[in-house]
Structure formats: C-alpha cells, structure tokens
Design the sequence.
C-alpha cells in the first residue's frame, strides 16, 4: 500500500482517494481503510519519509569538499524530488497537506539546509545577503516552474535553476538587495505554517 500510494501521489498528486490507491496496489478498498483509516494518515506517513530524504540530501551536501558545489547539490536534489513527486510539491506548497506536518518538516529541513548555505557563505562563494528565509521561497518559485512546464518538458526547470544559481553565486558587482529578507515569523506566515504569528 505504501509503495502504491507513493507511486500514485507522485504521478497524480494528492487529489486521489484511498480507492484509487487500493486499486493500484491490487488490494481491496477495505484493506486500505483498515491499514490507514484515512488518506491524511497515509499522506503523513509518506511525507515524513520524504522529508527525511531531503534532510539526508543536506547532510550529504555538507560532506562535499566544495561548499558551493554542496549548495548546488542540495538545491538540485531537492528540486529533483519535487519534479519527480507531484504529491510532495502539493503537500509542501499548498493547503492539501496538514499544516502541523509541514511545520514539523520545516523544523527538520531548514536547519540542515541553513548549514549548507552558511558553509558556502563562509567560504565567500554564496552571496552574503542571502537569508535562510529566502530559500523556501526560492524553492517555491522553482516548484511553480516545474508545475507549469512539466506537461511540455520534464527538464526545463533545470534552466531556471541555473539562472537562479548564477544570481546566488558571490561575485564582484552583485546588485544590492532592494529590501530586507523576511523574518522567520513572516516567512512562516507566508508559508501558512504559523498564521497567528506576525
């Protein structure tokens, strides 16, 4: 059931129901309800495993001898996961998934990604004015590019990632940021994981 759910969510998104997943798994509908009770429980279980994989990507990127290449590796692998898994994109960037689960996932992934980012900044390879709160919004922008272009090209998002990475690489003559980055509370409010904070 878990494998079937992973495949169905990745291909068709979270709009499918447990009946669809049961059919894909070749089991009866009653079995799916007995195992998981409801679709959200199944989403939560799969989502935690996907987040653990993203955290592992960040830990792997930290072992790269070149801090810039480690940052590129993390952003590329994260977006590859998003490109290959429509359900993951939907749960992270929409109201389909449970907000508490997304908040918990962010608490695991953001510090790991931040360590990769800070390492590249400390090496003078990543623009120093990039903030931790910029990363989720950059991932969201590129995720939208994946969503809109995938029916025509499954790989053109890599072009936009290259444009973004060129803008993030530290070099002489960078344009100053016109405004400050969002605070953590503001970025969480934008993401909808902590709407009561301001």
Sequence:
């Amino acid at each position: 059931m878990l494998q079937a759910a992973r495949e169905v969510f990745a291909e068709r998104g979270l709009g499918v129901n447990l009946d669809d997943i049961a059919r894909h798994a070749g089991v009866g509908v009653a079995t799916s309800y007995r195992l998981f009770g409801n679709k959200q429980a199944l989403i939560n279980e799969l989502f935690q495993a996907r987040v653990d994989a993203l955290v592992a990507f960040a830990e792997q990127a930290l072992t790269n001898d070149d801090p810039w290449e480690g940052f590129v590796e993390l952003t590329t692998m994260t977006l590859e996961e998003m490109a290959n898994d429509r359900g993951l994109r939907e749960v992270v960037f929409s109201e389909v998934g449970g907000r508490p689960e997304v908040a918990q996932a962010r608490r695991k992934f953001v510090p790991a990604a931040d360590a990769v980012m800070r390492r590249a900044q400390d090496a003078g390879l990543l623009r120093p004015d990039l903030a931790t709160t910029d990363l989720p919004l950059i991932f969201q922008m590129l995720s939208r590019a994946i969503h809109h272009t995938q029916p025509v090209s499954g790989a053109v998002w890599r072009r936009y990632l290259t444009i973004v990475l060129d803008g993030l690489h530290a070099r002489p003559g960078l344009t100053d940021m016109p405004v400050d980055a969002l605070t953590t509370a503001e970025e969480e409010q934008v993401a909808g994981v902590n709407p009561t904070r301001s």
User: Anything to note?
Assistant: The chain has a mean pLDDT of 87. The CA atoms of residues 146 and 157 lie 6 Å apart. Residues 99-122 form the longest helix (24 residues). The two ends are 41 Å apart (CA to CA).
